[in-house]
Design a protein that fits this description.
Helix content: over 70%
Distance between the termini: 34 Å
Order of helices and strands: HHHHH
Strand content: under 5%
Number of strands: 0
């Protein structure tokens, strides 16, 4: 069965829904200490939100007839050059944090990752949502 590719607007809508969920998780985290399960849920929700942001970028560039890109780093660099994101280094840090955080390995990066999600990455994703909404309206 073939599926029609999602439009940039559909991808943005899914991203916005996931971002709302992430905001809810972060509000809970600010109200007190998270259990291990809640910490994992917040990280999983962040990863889903970030993946959906990348899907928005992919759909946008496809619409603009740019790409394909070899990975999230190339896509992020192109998004920075196209003024879709305003802090390319922090977006690349986001990718690196996701790579480094892997609960299978003994390296404990969860605390730093959770802190970055709450203090840096949510703000970046919020600004990205605002930028893309303005692009869709134009």
């Amino acid at each position: 069965m073939k599926f029609l590719p999602k439009s940039c607007e559909d991808c943005l809508s899914e991203f916005s829904t996931a971002l709302d969920d992430l905001r809810t998780f972060i509000k809970r985290a600010k109200n007190g200490n998270l259990t291990e399960a809640q910490s994992r849920e917040l990280i999983i929700n962040f990863e889903v939100t970030h993946e959906l942001a990348l899907k928005v970028l992919t759909a946008y560039f496809k619409k603009e007839e740019k790409g394909p890109f070899t990975g999230s780093r190339d896509l992020t660099v192109e998004a920075f050059h196209a003024d879709l994101i305003d802090d390319g280094k922090s977006w690349l840090d986001m990718i690196i944090d996701r790579i480094q955080y892997n609960p299978i390995y003994a390296i404990d990066t969860q605390g730093k990752f959770l802190d970055n999600i709450q203090k840096k990455y949510l703000r970046l994703l919020d600004r990205f949502e605002n930028t893309m909404e303005k692009k869709m309206e134009a």
